[in-house]
Amino acid sequence: MLAYGGGDAAAFEALYAKHRGALFRYVLRSVKDRGAAEELYQDVWMRVIEARGRYSPQAKFTTWLYTIAHNRLVDHWRARGLNLVSLDEDEAAMAEPAATPGAEPERILEARQALDRLVDALAALPLAQREAFLLHHEGDLTAAQIAEVTGTHEEAAKSRLRYAMRKLREAIE
Amino acid sequence: MSDDDAVERRYRELAREEPPPAIDAAILAAARRRGPSRIGRWAGPVSIAAVLMLGIGVSLRMQTEKPGVESAMPSEYAAPASPEYAAPPASQLDAPAVAAPAQAPARQLDVPAAAAEKPAAAAPQRLEKRAAPADPARQLERIAQLRESGAHAEADRLLEEFRRRHPGFRIPEAMWERVRAR
Fold first, then answer.
1. DSSP A87
2. A54 touches chain B (CB under 8 A)
3. pTM of the predicted model, to two decimals?
4. How far apart are CA B155 and CA B144, in angstroms?
5. DSSP state of A135
6. Do A140 and A62 form a contact (C-beta atoms < 8 A)?
7. Which of A84-88, B21-25, B98-102 is modeled with the greatest confidence?
8. Going residue by residue through chain A (173 aa), what tens digit of pLDDT does each one get?
9. CA-CA distance, B71 to B63, in Å (whole number)?
10. DSSP code of B114?
11. Which of A47, A91, B3, B16 makes the best surface tag, with the fewest CB within 10 Å?
12. What is the complex's ipTM, to 2 decimals?
């Protein structure tokens, strides 16, 4: 990123190639609409380009990139009237067994049905848990980095990740 | 294989979406068009120059506003590097502070005696105003004003910077309506 800030366009292309797929899937799975996802995704990269002179060498690029993406998503969610205070509401409900659609006891061997359930379960996760899952599995961020990106504490990030994995496990079993 | 591994494996099968080629092309074209960041290249020298200018400007202000310091005002307000400001004449530095209004140089006689106290009081306020607002509320107010004046690009930039500096800050709803992107 520093090289790109200094004028090396090839450096940006290398960064873009490395992060494009993961960042796209993170944005895509954070919003309901593919059109909105594509627009947001492009907007995030435009902000990266505009901010090239302000990139701090002390910040890991991945953390910086996903912070920009997270903040852009927050703007998007707010614009749609989402109450961000309720991001973690479902964590209180996890104290009791969750009655999710995919919790039937029978084992389904068809891989496509398991994937379908995973898709549905991922979409059904509370925003904060889904985001923690995506930042970990797409962005390859640790809990500490997830906390930094989302402006929360490491323990909260770990907790969200744990709850997300638990719900997804139940969905594909 | 652990249960978490199973989730990961399934997710890897699922996660194959990629951005459309048209978006890739648009982003890469924008990156090439922007070229090198002037900020990035000249950040160091510009920062040093800015700090020097600010420091000199503040010093000059304090000399002209502090009561009792009777420095001779030049006929023209010279650039900060002017030698006239380098060392005020010693005789003026020795002037008694208590009689400042009566003994003020010709330029300052235009200021009423009652107002002579104001510069000292105003100086800290002016200094405070020039300092970069670290208060999140002030930063948000500035962004809101930019938004209201139609300077959306600058507002977007400052909002992004604000989020970077204060990632956990919850913007009140009323303020959010004023600063959010249009």
1. G
2. yes
3. 0.55
4. 8
5. H
6. yes
7. B21-25
8. 877 777 777 889 999 999 999 999 999 999 978 999 999 999 999 999 998 877 777 778 999 999 999 999 999 988 877 655 555 554 333 333 333 444 444 444 566 777 788 888 999 999 999 999 999 999 999 999 999 999 999 999 999 999 999 999 988 87
9. 7
10. G
11. B16
12. 0.80
Both tokens assigned to A156: 């909260």
How far is it, in rounded angstroms, from Cα A23 to Cα A72?
A: 12
- The token pair at B95 is 């002037």
Q: Which residues of A touch B30 (CB under 8 A)?
A: 45-46, 49
Report CB contact under 8 Å: A75, B18: no
Distances (CA, A) of B6 to A102, A108, B121: 16, 14, 69
One-letter amino acid at B156 equals D
- Contacts (Cβ under 8 Å, ≥6 apart) of A141: A62, A63, A66, A135, A149
Q: What does R_g of chain A's alpha carbons equal in angstroms?
A: 17
The verdict on A28 touching B (C-beta cutoff 8 Å) is yes
Contact (CB<8Å) A51/B160 = yes
